[in-house]
Every structure is written in structure tokens, then in C-alpha cells.
Amino acid sequence: MFxxxxxxxxxxxxxxxxxxxxxxxxxxxxxxxxxxxxxxxxALFIAGLAVISFTGNSPAPFKNxxxxxxxxxxxxGQLWINHPQTAFSNARLSLLLSSIFFxxxxxxxxxxxxxxxxxxxxxxxxxxxxxxxxxxxxxVFRKQxxxxxxxxxxxxxxxxPPTMDPAxxxxxxxxxFVAVYATFQVRRxxxxxxxxxxxxxxxxxxxxxxxxxxPISWASPADTNWKLVAIQSLAAFGSGIVTAMLVSGLLPILxxxxxVTTDISWLEMADLNHPLLKRLSMEAPGTYHHSxxxxxxxxxxxxxxxxxxxxxxxxxxxxxIGKLVxxxxxxxxxRQGENPHDALTPTLSALIxxxxxxxxxxxxxxxxxxxxxxxxxxEHHGTSRLEYFYQRALSQKKDAELGSKIMxxxxxxxxxxxxxxFLYPGPRPRTKETAILSLxxxxxxxxxxxxxPSVTKIKEMIDAIFAARIxxxxxxxxxxxxxxxxxxxxxFLFSLQSMLHTRVAYPKPLKESSQKNEETEIVVHNIxxx
Length: 530
Fold this sequence. Notes:
The structure is a single chain. About 70% of the residues lie in helices and about 0% in strands. With about 525 residues, it is mainly α. The protein has 2 domains: about 25-265, no CATH class; about 270-335 and about 355-385 and about 425-500, Hypothetical protein af1432. Helix 10 (about 165-180) packs antiparallel against helix 11 and helix 17 runs antiparallel to helix 18.
């Protein structure tokens, strides 16, 4: 026993020396959320607006620049009120303002080409990339940011021509809204091309209605330059498709530079052929199937409350990868009659179980998993207590105290049970996705112990787990509301009913000899009755 404890502690000590950690330096935090960096981002954006305003043949560049600043003031206020997460994250703010700036810059560049005669000015209204920023931000940050970009890009674009153009404003607004609608919850790159076709069709129809294509003389068709109309029509459709192709190619670069992850990339990460998941399926099959079940529960609950279901699914796949280090010590992998914890003290058992969180973070960093997945590994147990081993330790202490009274030993010789030894290191869940993962993990684990599960039993189990998490303050740092918790509980109940359904017990087929015996008994009985 002593040798086993010594061996385990030596392994744990060695692992701490080489354990990988996420760097949280002060410099990095200043870059991520510091005011100085944020002020620099706005200063660069204002400088870019100034360059755009004073370039070209604008009759009133100072007036345009003042209008740009007023629009920027309104945009900043809107961002601070409706999107505080982006307003106070320098990476997200940089991506948002960069996308908007490059769309305005593309508008200005094409207008200058038209002014200098390098492009036919009649093609400019249908060549402008109206959907660039709305499409990028809708895919990366969801539809609210896409609509934000569509509105403010259109307002800035309206002041770019020498005279304000209402048609340009309307086409830009509508095409941006179509781009956001067509890219809502995009999970495959092919849908971006379809969104580009929609944007091109919207641009073409609006350009026709507002007289930007042609002019077309329906009274005398022979006077219409149909070649120009065909070129303008192709340009309208082509601009939308080219914009979508450009966005599709830029997304991996933007994700890498700004540290964001789109639903497309999350779906690619959900591939079960990942080396860690393949190891899990082979070395810890019980944990692997538990992770798949948790993923189904968490994804359905996330969809119900408007959280990100793909993050929940991927995080669920990897949340228990730390069990790969000692899979045989976890209940879902223990074979019947071979419980290794029977030979260990409760304290050592708790140490082994709790270590799977640190080991999971170590493996996740080694395999370069997404930081949000690492957060799910660290937070899915929060600071909760290993109740089984804690109560077992208290029981052993009580037995020792009774034995000491019989043998007249001093109570000081009995070691105290340190409660902190049985607590997970945390932190507690800090996002909706990790909170859902934490609840789904507990509910799925508890559901395996239900005997003849019914709707009532499942509901009572879910309510008990939720109440325990709330009373233990494990959800205090997550943004979940009580209404969302009720919706999550309903989703778990529905999912578990499907997962734990019972089958009808089919009657066993009678053997041929027993059937003949029954037939003989029936015949004899009938003869006697006669």
C-alpha cells in the first residue's frame, strides 16, 4: 500500500514539473483588454477615415470627415450599449472595425477608379462589395454584428461620392441585410457561395428598380444598350459571388490573427477522428460513450436557450480527455468486481479523480485545442466536492474514533479529514456553454444509476442536481438566468427520455418438445372431459 502511494505521488510530482500552462502575462492582458490598446485601435480607424475623406475630388472633405466622426460616435455608443463583449475586447473590436474599414476603403477605391476613367462609372454601383463586412461579422460574431456592419457601412458609404447618393444607401443596406440573413448560423463553406448568389440577386433587383442598370427604354428597346445592361447584370451577380469567395478564403486568416473561431471551424473540430478522441474510444470506451451522450444533451440544451450548440458539442467531446492517464480508476471504465479504489484510501482516490482535470488541460494544450475547449475542461466540475469519497473518509474517521475508544487510544492520533482535498480546483463555469456542459455531465452520469427510469424519476433527478448546483453556488459566475435553467432542465428531460427509453419484454419462444407436450396434455384433457 505504501509503495503504491509513493509511486503515485512521484508520478504526480513529475507531471507538475512538465505541466503546460496557458500564459496569462500582464502584457497579454493589456493587449487583450487594455484601454491604451483600445484607444490606439480607434485612433487608427479615425486616421483611416481622414485619409478616405481627403482623398479624391470631394467638394467638401472637411464636411464629410465631420459626418464620418458623427457616425463613428453613434456607432461607438451602439456598440457599447448592445455589444459590450465586443466593445471591451480589443481583438473583437479590431476585427469589427477592420472589416468595416476595408469595405469603405474598397468603396472609395472603386469610386476613384470611376472618377479617373479606368472603370466605366455606370458599372460602379453594381461592382461595390456591399456584403463584405456584414458577411464576415455575421459568420464570425452572429447576426447582430452583421446587421450593425450593414447599417453603419451604408451610412459611411453614402458620403463617399461627391454628392450623397440615396440609391447607394438603399442598395448597401438591403444587400447587407440579405447577406446577414443568408449567413445565419453558417456551418459549411458552401453556404457562403449560396449567400453570395442571394446578395448578387438582391443587388441586381435593386439596381434595376433604382435605375442603376441601363438606362433601359421599354418604349423603344432598340435604343437600349443591351450589351451594357448584360455587363451590369453580370457585374451585380458577380460582385456578390466574388465577395462570398473572398470571405470564405479570408476566414481562416481572420480566425488565426484575431483569435476567433467560427461555427465552420467548430464543426471541423467536431470530427471524431481526432487523435485524442480515437485514443479515448480505444483506451477508455466508457468515458468515450459518456462524452458522446453529454454532447447530445448539451447541444440540444444550447439550441433551446440560444447558446452556441457547436461549442457545447466539441467541448463535450474533449471534457474528460484527462481520464486517458488513468482510465481504469473511473467508474464508467471499471469492470464488474475489479474496483481499484477498494485498495486505496479515500484521499488518494480523490486525488486520482480530481487530477483528470489538470491532465486534460495538459493534453489539450499539447494538442493545440481551442482555448474555449480548454475552458470547458477546467470549468466543467467547477469547485464542487467529490461527495462519495468525502463521505467515505468521514465514515472511516468515525469508525476509527469508535475503535480508539475501545482500545483507549488518544483522539489526537486520528487524522482529520481535510475538506479541501476533495474539492475540484475550478474555476466555476463562466460562460453559458461551460455551464451547460457542467450540468449535462452531472445529469448524464447520474442517469446511469437510475433503476427502471421513468419520467418522474428522471425529472426528480434533474431537479435535485440543479438545486444542488445552485445551492453550492457553482453557477454564480455563469450568465444563465433562472428561465434559461428551466429551459435547460426541460431539454435534458426530453433528451433523457429518448436515451433511457425501455423496450417491451418479448415472450421467449417455446421449444418444439414443450409445444408437443402441451398439445398432448390438451388432447388427454379433452378425452377425459368427454
